[in-house]
Amino acid sequence: MIAEADPWVAMGDPSRRRIVRLLAAGPSSVAELADVLPISRPAVSQHLKVLKAAGLVDVRPQGTRRIYQVDPAGLQALRAELDGFWGQAMANFVELTNRHTKENEA
Amino acid sequence: MIAEADPWVAMGDPSRRRIVRLLAAGPSSVAELADVLPISRPAVSQHLKVLKAAGLVDVRPQGTRRIYQVDPAGLQALRAELDGFWGQAMANFVELTNRHTKENEA
DNA sequence: TGAACCCGTAAGTCGTAGCTTACCGTTCGT
DNA sequence: ACGAACGGTAAGCTACGACTTACGGGTTCA
Lengths: 106, 106
Known about the structure:
The structure is a homodimer.
Chain A lengths: L6 H6 L1 H12 L4 H7 L4 H13 L3 E6 L2 E6 L1 H34 L1
Antiparallel strand pairs in A: 1-2
Helix pairs in contact in A: 2-4, 3-4
The structure holds a DNA duplex.
GO molecular function (chains A, B): DNA binding; DNA-binding transcription factor activity
Organism (chains A, B): Knoellia koreensis
Protein name (chains A, B): Winged helix-turn-helix transcriptional regulator
């Protein structure tokens, strides 16, 4: 498995973000996605492979078709990491503000 | 301005995510970042350029050095878009669940 | 003013991501 | 069992992103 499993890298590609947006609106098959997107069906397939490896989408075989949908857990993981960044940045901000205030008080 | 201004693309690169992580812990100069990271100083400079274009970091010239720090607004924007995906996905989920329940009731 | 630092940019190389066409396995309908 | 959809994979091409080294512009301190 040399495949890319990083959700951030997966979301970095505009086409994949568009796919996620479409799937967030409702599950759909590969052909349905390819019909809307300006890329070929195999390209969509490859993007879905990356998104699946990143844990952002799920597959549900249904007859001859494969229905894809977003995996809330994947988005949640991204949110968690992003909140981590944000929280740390804010904590650092208030600390700097406090220090600055104290310096001005002195 | 051919520069890349997409925050998602900016966060897609591991080195840049690491820089954001470092800056979230506290502001620092380019040399300080390059000292920690396994890449050259110009490489860090280029990454910072992308992050700045994406609105994820801010610069504050201080003497001969340039102090970089995260821009909370940029992270907030990412959070907002991510929450949009999540909310839509969840709404779609409960709708599907309701429909499924109704079908089973009928 | 000149030396020493910090940093951004230019130029060039290398790897790889994203796309295409072609092909093949699988599943349903008749 | 045959043909048709649906979709994943292989092979190959092209473009771009992430590095590197080399250079130049500012700012500080003697």
